[in-house]
């Protein structure tokens, strides 16, 4: 923390444009936890958590060419008394040009829309309630089956708040879903699951494990885990803990795991070792049955030494040449006082040197997500916490950002998006059934890539937004009367003791 405060004092909050082909980052809007996907026409779809007075929302914007559409709130839920809920949206765009969306209120919801109409709330299907939960992630196999993982609290005597990873699937394009199956089967909690379907339709899930999981939080110590299915999700392997030799103490933790399939058909994972800030990777050549010994990714470090966020994550995407692109927040040098959003490439045999997408002094980037469009176009989104309010989301001026780059992988020709008829759904179908009011109108203006500058947004766009550290405060407030009573009893005992001694 001393290093962090010194950096804040000596280096004003700045963002610098980047090297090696990355575009100048442009803002998409407030507030946090974005996701990104692309369709066959090359259109880029972005969603993120935000809100308006009285509502929690899923914001959506699309990019055709160099221009972003106006951001609109495609899902809106009335705020729960006492604060907001981060909607935590996750995207999947399939080969049929359908945009699939999951998001949360206190329940995980699923919906879909045609790619060409995703910016119009009336095109979105009536939301389907998957179940109570927090994180969610989707994938689609070659047979058109939708697979979904999400976290849900499993209350036991030993752990009252311990979220497990559950799996469901849909064989009818998301109209109905199977019964949930607990695939984490751990006595502790889970957070940030990621799901992929490999080239042989095997399913692979990784997540972060530790006690808790509500509002994205896990108590230390944390580890990272894997489970896989080779029968379409009917059965799952027992969770495998990466790097178990480091033990289970706060001196040997792991976070931020991500997974992809490389050009060789091998699985590759990357995760952060704490507190040493080393980023490790591991390979599996047998569809997750066994894993290689952890090896450090060269020339890159994590950000834990500067900023100890428990809400950050890493992400991977694969281009047309089978190269795996990793995006993460980190540093290139141990003595580096500023944070960077970094991009690295795994080519099937080694890692590239990291390149910088965005660099910050004071402000902190977080939660990067990456998608590949048309085979060789990289699209990255993330959000930034302003230096003045790193841990105070109520007053924060948090912003979602976007950058793009083109690789030398083979391009894929765009397929024009099919025409879609006018929406026939209820124009208020995007509002969860609890809402009695229409979707609020977004005030975020369209963003053009050229000459974009950091917007001046008034602090506290979401005056009641739920901090993802609030449970710690609630715990302190809950036990405060008990602590006061204990000290009171001790004080009375000391006073009584002194009086007896005088007698």
Task: Describe what this molecule looks like in 3D.
The chain is built from two helices and 30 strands. The chain has 503 residues and is mostly beta strands. It has a single domain, classed as Neuraminidase. The N terminus is likely disordered.
Key words describing this protein structure:
2 helices, mainly beta, globular, Neuraminidase, single chain, 5-stranded antiparallel sheet, 503 residues
Give a short synopsis of this structure.
By secondary structure, the protein is mostly beta strands. The protein has two helices and 30 strands.
Layout of SSEs?
Layout: H1 2-10, E1 14-16, E2 26-29, E3 32-38, E4 44-52, E5 55-64, E6 67-68, E7 72-78, E8 90-93, E9 98-104, E10 107-114, E11 128-132, E12 136-140, E13 146-153, E14 163-170, E15 181-182, E16 189-197, E17 203-212, E18 218-229, E19 240-241, E20 253-261, E21 267-274, E22 278-284, E23 295-301, E24 315-318, E25 324-330, E26 339-346, E27 355-361, E28 364-373, E29 377-385, E30 399-406, H2 470-502
Antiparallel strand pairs: 1-27, 2-30, 3-4, 4-5, 5-6, 5-7, 8-9, 9-10, 10-11, 12-13, 13-14, 14-15, 16-17, 17-18, 18-19, 20-21, 21-22, 22-23, 24-25, 25-26, 26-27, 28-29, 29-30
């Amino acid at each position: 923390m001393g290093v962090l405060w010194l950096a804040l004092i000596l280096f004003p909050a700045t963002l610098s444009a980047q090297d090696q082909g990355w575009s100048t980052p442009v803002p998409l809007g407030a507030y946090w936890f974005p996701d990104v996907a692309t369709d066959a026409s090359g259109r880029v779809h972005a969603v993120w958590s935000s809100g308006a007075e009285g509502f929690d929302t899923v914001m959506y914007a699309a990019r055709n060419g160099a221009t972003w559409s106006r951001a609109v709130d495609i899902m809106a839920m009335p705020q729960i008394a006492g604060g907001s809920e981060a909607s935590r949206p996750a995207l999947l765009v399939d080969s049929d040009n359908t945009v699939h969306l999951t998001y949360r209120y206190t329940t995980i919801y699923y919906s879909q829309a045609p790619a060409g109409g995703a910016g119009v709330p009336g095109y979105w299907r009536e939301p389907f309630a998957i179940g109570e939960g927090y994180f969610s992630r989707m994938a689609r196999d070659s047979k058109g089956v939708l697979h979904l993982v999400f976290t849900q609290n499993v209350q036991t005597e030993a752990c009252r708040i311990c979220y497990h990873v559950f799996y469901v699937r849909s064989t009818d394009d998301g109209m109905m879903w199977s019964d949930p199956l607990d695939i984490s089967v751990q006595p502790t909690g889970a957070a940030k699951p990621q799901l992929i379907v490999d080239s042989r339709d095997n399913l692979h899930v990784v997540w972060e494990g530790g006690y808790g999981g509500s509002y994205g939080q896990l108590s230390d110590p944390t580890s990272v885990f894997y489970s896989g299915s080779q029968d379409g999700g009917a059965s799952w392997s027992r969770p495998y803990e990466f790097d178990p030799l480091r033990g289970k103490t706060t001196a040997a933790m792991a976070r931020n795991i991500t997974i992809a399939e490389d050009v060789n058909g091998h699985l590759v994972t990357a995760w952060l070792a704490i507190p040493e800030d080393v980023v490790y990777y591991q390979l599996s050549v047998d569809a997750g049955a066994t894993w290689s010994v952890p090896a450090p990714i060269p020339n890159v470090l994590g950000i834990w030494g500067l900023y100890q966020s428990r809400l950050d994550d890493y992400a991977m995407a694969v281009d047309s040449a089978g190269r795996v692109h990793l995006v993460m927040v980190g540093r290139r040098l141990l003595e580096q006082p500023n944070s960077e959003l970094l991009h690295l490439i795994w080519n099937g045999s080694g890692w590239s040197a990291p390149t910088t997408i965005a660099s910050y002094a004071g402000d902190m980037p977080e939660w990067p997500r990456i998608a590949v469009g048309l085979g060789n176009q990289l699209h990255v989104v993330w959000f930034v916490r302003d230096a003045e309010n790193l841990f105070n989301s109520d007053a924060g001026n948090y912003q979602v950002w976007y950058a793009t780059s083109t690789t030398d992988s083979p391009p894929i020709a765009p397929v024009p998006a099919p025409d879609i008829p006018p929406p026939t759904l209820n124009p208020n179908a995007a509002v969860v059934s609890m809402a009695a009011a229409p979707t609020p109108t977004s005030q975020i203006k369209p963003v053009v890539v050229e000459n974009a500058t950091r917007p001046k947004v008034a602090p506290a766009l979401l005056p009641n937004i739920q901090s993802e550290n609030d449970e710690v405060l609630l715990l302190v407030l809950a036990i405060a009367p008990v602590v006061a009573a204990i000290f009171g009893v001790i004080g009375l005992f000391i006073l009584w003791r002194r009086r007896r001694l005088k007698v």
